[in-house]
Amino acid sequence: MPELPEVETVKSGLANAIEGQVISNVECRVGKLRWPVPDNFVDRLRGRRLVQLSRRAKYILAHFDDETILLLHLGMSGRMTISDGRPAELEKHDHIILTAANGKVVRFNDARRFGSVHLATTATINAHPLIAGLGPEPLGNHFSGPVLAAALKGRRTAIKPTLLNQRLVAGVGNIYASEALFRAGISPRRLANSVAGQRAERLAQAIRTVLEEAIAAGGSSLRDHVQPNGELGYFQHAFKVYDRADLPCPTPTCGRPLQRLVQTGRATFFCSNCQR
Length: 276
Ligand SMILES: [Zn+2]
What we know:
Strand content: 15-25%
Distance between the termini: 28 Å
Number of domains: 2
Structural class: alpha+beta
Shape: globular
Oligomer: single chain
Helix content: 25-40%
Mean pLDDT: 93
Bound molecules: zinc ion
CATH architecture of the largest domain: Orthogonal Bundle
CATH topology of the largest domain: Helicase, Ruva Protein, domain 3
């Protein structure tokens, strides 16, 4: 499942290809993804200039010149592919196809259909049900140790599953929650309300660091964020603890086997020696 850094990489790749372009053609070959596609989807976007692409949590926002905003989520398996011109044969799950005036064609492919598209406007976006309840952006100016501590105050649940609550901080998913807790030296089982003061400061900084490093790795590993087959994004790699159960802890003075734990149905990876 794409996490925040991968969504950011996809957004940057889309921006490189079609930002500022008139979208001369829009095709929609599906009536429903996770939710129904808006009825007037094609008519509202066709012929409009795509002014800017941005990201909020794991949503990509395409801002058009009439103040329409396309709100897109990649879901579990959604992929964006860019090509020069429309391929002679589309792939099986190519649901939405945007053709830009510069000849670039963007295809949204989603085999499992957990992705979604919605339409909003600059006036309504902040009240949109998918956006309104989101907590602060972890890489934005409104996220800090004190902000995180305030969000965790009074919560008597384990910190790891609590970090996945998008109302507290937006866009932190399962992988980077494990990674950030390892960097901050905080046990995933620690009660959320005990993460305060310096500990919250360390965790907020660790969340920023793991996300920024992953975005930088995605950006540097692929020219223009495009893989050779035209797909945007990158393969997640180089985790310190995620999916590394029984492998040695990467802390040089530790080296003990990493552990796996299931919390609220999600796998957590950690070092019981380095994280308290
Ligand atoms: Zn360790």
